[in-house]
Amino acid sequence: MKILIVGSGGREHAIAWAAAKSPKTDKIYCAPGNAGIAEFAECVDIGAMEFDKLAAFAKEKEIDLTIIGMDDPLVGGIVDVFEAEGLRVFGPRKNAAIIEGSKAFSKDLMKKYNIPTAAYETFTDPEEAVKYLETAKMPIVLKADGLALGKGVLICKDLEEAKAGVKTLMLDKQFGDAGDEIVIEEFMTGREVSVLAFCDGKTIKCMTSAQDHKRAKDGDQGLNTGGMGTFSPSPFYTKEVEDFCEKHIYQPTMDAMAAEGRPFTGILFTGLMLTEDGPKVLEYNARFGDPEAQVVLPRMKNDMIEVMEACIDGRLADVELEFEDNAAVCVVLASDGYPEKYEKGFEIKGLDAFKGKEGYYVFHAGTKFDGDKIVTNGGRVLGVVAKGDDLKAARANAYEATEWIDFANKYKRNDIGKAIDEA
Ligand code: AMP
Ligand code: GLY
């Protein structure tokens, strides 16, 4: 098969790696890709939002399967464009990707179908939002309705911060139109777990769990980022929690989307908070997590391409997902300053150290070629991943491997997987 992957981050590198392992795969293209993906795929200089150009490319190259890694093209309707051209594509259509594209939509869906989530209200008028905040319990959470690179969520400890948050999102429009509507929701406490699942519109099959570290700095301080590191599995995602989520969250979400005339095919990513009152949904995403994919896919025993085809053909009920009985940890190496201002263009050294080392991976996020050198080209630069027999071993291996890499302004969190010690 000829495969086209759309995206350019660490997640797409992990997807390309998994696709390359499949005996079904003959050739991989990636648009636009990065310097690491280029090892498995021919990178094509077409942007992820250039749907017509991408579809024309897929037709010209007779691509058998296109995999959409990123949220923006999914929410923008790339799957509908490909399907209209008779092309086979893995991902939700626009009317289902809205589960990630609009937090107001997903909250209303959960309310309507009794799926456990934080209590909330939505607002399009900043004055109304402030009026509501004046009587609300603090801390409180403000979320831009639309996509904001995982950064449109503000946790506000008091009324003053919350009012400033309304200004940031709705008046200063820090995230553009994404802040035209906001969700204000109850602040929850507990462990966070990310559960990614394959879906075929009717059936949902979950992968092994993972935990992300969203804040930029150690001790969960600093700004929210796309994710600074992950581990898999989560020791807090017990069989009991899993059973609860299967019954009250995953299948009900699939059924709700189907009942709304928006059957969901692709990857559904449920962000959970394990609260004292039981698991509750923090958010849904319509694609693999980044950097969750980097720790989940290397542990998957199935042929990813086969599972994706089963999703497209509505045969997922016949598939049994299998994962290795081990653990994996990903530590993101970022450019100092991320998620705010940072410099790029610095040479990355040490990548070759990963070659031929079983159980160690370096997934590129923001890198590019500069002549025959590989240089930094983004906030998140690399995801260093290692497996181990258990979480502690995987964590030690991953941190050791971060030392193999060197580039100017290299920054990482030093406490990825600290929660493992509390399990
Ligand atoms: P989201 O993009 O909605 O997952 O939010 C990003 C991060 O903000 C989450 O991973 C949580 O750490 C935090 N967060 C979101 N909603 C809440 C909430 N209701 N209570 C506490 N923390 C939250
Ligand atoms: N790591 C969180 C996300 O991909 O949204």
Automatic annotation (TrEMBL):
Keyword Ligase: yes
Pathway recorded for this protein: Purine metabolism; IMP biosynthesis via de novo pathway; N(1)-(5-phospho-D-ribosyl)glycinamide from 5-phospho-alpha-D-ribose 1-diphosphate: step 2/2
Alphabetically ordered keywords of this record: ATP-binding, Ligase, Manganese, Metal-binding, Nucleotide-binding, Purine biosynthesis
Protein origin, superkingdom: Bacteria
Cofactor: Mn(2+); Mg(2+)
Domain ATP-grasp span(s) in chain numbering: 107-313
PROSITE patterns: ATP_GRASP, GARS
Catalytic activity: 5-phospho-beta-D-ribosylamine + glycine + ATP = N(1)-(5-phospho-beta-D-ribosyl)glycinamide + ADP + phosphate + H(+)
Record's keyword annotation contains Transcription regulation: no
EC number: 6.3.4.13
Biological process terms in GO annotation: 'de novo' IMP biosynthetic process; purine nucleobase biosynthetic process
Gene Ontology molecular functions: ATP binding; metal ion binding; phosphoribosylamine-glycine ligase activity
InterPro entries xref list: ATP-grasp, ATP_grasp_subdomain_1, PreATP-grasp_dom_sf, PRibGlycinamid_synth_ATP-grasp, PRibGlycinamide_synth, PRibGlycinamide_synth_C-dom, PRibGlycinamide_synth_C_sf, PRibGlycinamide_synth_CS
Pfam families named among the record's database cross-references: GARS_A, GARS_C, GARS_N
Family under the similarity heading: Belongs to the GARS family.
Protein name (Swiss-Prot/TrEMBL): Phosphoribosylamine--glycine ligase
